[in-house]
Amino acid sequence: MAGPLIADQRAAARGQRIYAMLLAVTAGVIMVIPAFGSNYTKTFVMQGLMSCALAGSWNLISGFTGYVSFGHAAFFGIGSYAAGIAIVHGGIPAPLAIAIAGAAAAAVGLTFGYPALRLRGPYFAVGMLGVAEAIRVAVTVAEPVTGGGKGLVLPPEDVLDAAYYAMLAVVTTTVLVTYRVATLPVGLRLLAIREDEVAAEMNGIQVTRLKLGAFAVSALFAGLAGGIYAWQISYIDPGTVFAGSLTVRAIAMTMLGGQGTVFGPVVGSILLSGISEALWTRFPFIHTALSGVLIVAIVLFLPGGITQFLQNRGWIPRSRRL
Amino acid sequence: MVTYLQVIISGLLLGGVYALLAGGLTLIFGVMRVINLAHGEFLMLGAYASYYLFMRLGLNPIVSLLLTLPLMFLIGWVAQRFLVTRVVRAPLLTSLLLTYGVSLALTGGAQALFTNDFRSVPFMSGAVNVGELALSIPRLVACGIALVLTAAAQYFLVRTRWGKALRATSQSADVALACGIDIDRARTLAFAIAVALAGAAGTLTSFLYTVYPEMGRTFMLKAFAVIVLGGMGSFPGAFLGALALGVIESTAGYLTTTQVAEAVIYVTLLGMLLLRPQGFFGLKEA
Question: So what's the pLDDT on residue B260?
Fold first, then answer.
């Protein structure tokens, strides 16, 4: 009886090697793109990296603890505006402004997370939706500082390459942190909250502290991504940086790749970025509708994501390192 | 004093229309624990249906309700049978993402079919004077129709066999199933009714506001605030919450600007969630 099992394990180990190799090749290609790629390619990959940072940071709170944050764009938006205001009104150099962006988003995450994370399930989801909208409107109203609905113009700089690597650094850090979290006991604790929060608490897990910590780290990475975006694009407005579609893209990518996994958000964002770019160039008029259909299809046919699909077939091992 | 009374009354009239939309949203949440992010898009479909029936066939929106209600009921039935029913037992995220996908598909479809132009139905205008108050006729009519439909839905829920089945499913799906209630059917019925009510709300908004593909979004966010106020899952709660939100919105709009009024709505939503997540009379599980 041991024969097939060992064969399965071998097949899975081979699968894991292929999986790792594909990821490594992709990472290598992404590393060298600024040296060879056109501006179009660079901008496209940079957009993908930004989505990946958002998906990865969303995964840290929602994929692991199951607290569905439907207002993740809020942290991206706060990061954008924090960096934008620091650069425009404070004359602060960009790297410092981006650090401020991350800190501001994490601070807001802690402030709202403390009360909001007491809410369960649908109440938390609706609450975060409310938080994102409230912050968007607040930024729109605070016209003297933020420029209101007209948006905020940053001094234009040609920093595409620098921003590209900065975004890549954020993505890499997010993945590394997720890997650490997933392979240490803290990851199991977070997953325990997802499965049954009361039982987790009964087993001595400090639920509130963990949730809040995960939420703040998640907000930090989203804020950093927002700061880099603002610096590179040099024009931000509330409708763009607080767009609910940013949140949903991040969620759809994470779900496609696999929630609560290390590389799920990466795989999901590579696939979904590619697919939606292809849809956008081929069918510009019904692009939105097709993305909707695509999301519905993912939910109906791949609810556990690609990682789980491959694991169920025995093509890659059920390891939390993946 | 008269001005303030005027503000409150216009808030109540606004609330009547919100009640139609939020009533359905809360019904869906009650029987399935599903948050329907496509609810605003069903309103948008209803609004476009009324717009085209008015422009092409000259049907006035009140008459076209007789067509849009059954049409939207059917759309809701189909959406539930083919899509939503597959994710009822899945984790919260699955249904959220599914309904968002539907919402995106409907918005995008509407943009492709109807273009992004702002449209409106030129139907009814003017005001009647009651004492020193001036009441807008279209708003009075819209609120009247909304009240009739809400009352009919409430009658259905409280008095009829299927209405009781629906409320039983909402209280506890497992126990309802054990009592021999066809909960799948009850859920389909709830979704279809909710979509029909959203469509009716769309018909009413078609002659009160402008019609465009993305109109559903703001309405949906307001409907969320309403059902949080009233208690998620409670139909009478949604009615009271809608009136309350209408008054809050129009008062805030009168005292400050419409933008600040929008912020006030979200702050109300958050405050209620934090202080009393079960709302006026919601399910006790927040």
Answer: 83
Nearest residue on chain A to B106, alpha-carbon basis? A289
Give the DSSP letter string of A201-244.
HHTT--HHHHHHHHHHHHHHHHHHHHHHHHHHH-EE-HHHHT-H
Q: Within 13 Å and on the Cβ side, how many CA atoms surround B99?
A: 26
Residue A18 contacts by C-beta under 8 Å, 6 or more apart in sequence?
Answer: none
- Nearest residue, CB atoms, B94 vs list A123, A127, A299: A299
Query: Topology of domain A10-312, per CATH?
Result: ABC transporter involved in vitamin B12 uptake, BtuC (1.10.3470)
Q: What does DSSP say about strands B127-130 and B133-136: parallel, antiparallel, or unpaired? A: antiparallel
CATH 3.40.50 assigned to B2-275: no
Q: Which residue of B lies nearest to A126 if distances are taken between CA atoms? A: B224
Going from N- to C-terminal start, the domains of chain B cover 2-275
User: CB–CB of A296 and B101 under 8 A?
Assistant: yes
Q: How confident is the model at residue A51 (pLDDT cuts 50, 70, 90)?
A: very high
- Which stretch of DSSP H or E encloses residue A152? strand A152-153
B100 Cβ under 8 Å from any chain A Cβ: yes
Q: In percent, how much of chain B has pLDDT > 90?
A: 30
Helix (H, G, I), strand (E, B) or coil at B127: strand
* Ramachandran region, residue B115 (left: φ > 0; alpha: ψ -120 to 50; beta: rest): left
pLDDT of residue A231: 93
Dist. CA B124–CA B133, nearest whole Å: 19
Mention every residue, 6+ apart, whose C-beta is less than 8 A from residue B147: B16, B19
Contact A70 B96 (CB under 8 A): yes
Nearest CA among B57, B60, B65, B66 for reference residue B124: B60
A133 contacts B266? CB cut-off 8 A: yes
| A7 phi, psi to nearest 5 deg | -60, -45
**A109 closest CA partner among A153, A161, A62, A176:** A62
Cβ-Cβ contacts under 8 Å, A303 against chain B: 87, 90, 94
Q: Do A68 and B263 touch (CB under 8 A)?
A: no
Q: Residues of B with CB below 8 A from A141's CB?
A: 259-260, 263
Q: Give chain B's end-to-end CA distance (angstroms, integer).
A: 39
Find, among A319, A321, A317, the residue nearest to A15 by Cα.
A317
What's the mean per-residue pLDDT of chain B? 87
- Flag if A129 and B221 touch (Cβ within 8 Å): yes
Mean pLDDT on B34-44? 92
Does B286 contact chain A (CB < 8 Å)?
A: yes
The residue ranges of every structural domain in chain A are: 10-312
Which residues of chain A make contact with B221, given a CB cutoff of 8 A? 129-130, 133
pLDDT tens track for B195-222: 999 999 999 998 888 889 988 888 888 8
* Secondary structure (DSSP) of B229-254: HH-TT-HHHHHHHHHHHHHHHHHHHH
For the question of an ipTM over 0.90, the answer is no
Q: Shortest CA distance to A55 belongs to which of A294, A210, A273? A: A273
d(CA A80, CA A99): 11
Which tokens in the block code for residue B284?
């006790």
Q: Percentage of chain A surpassing pLDDT 90?
A: 40
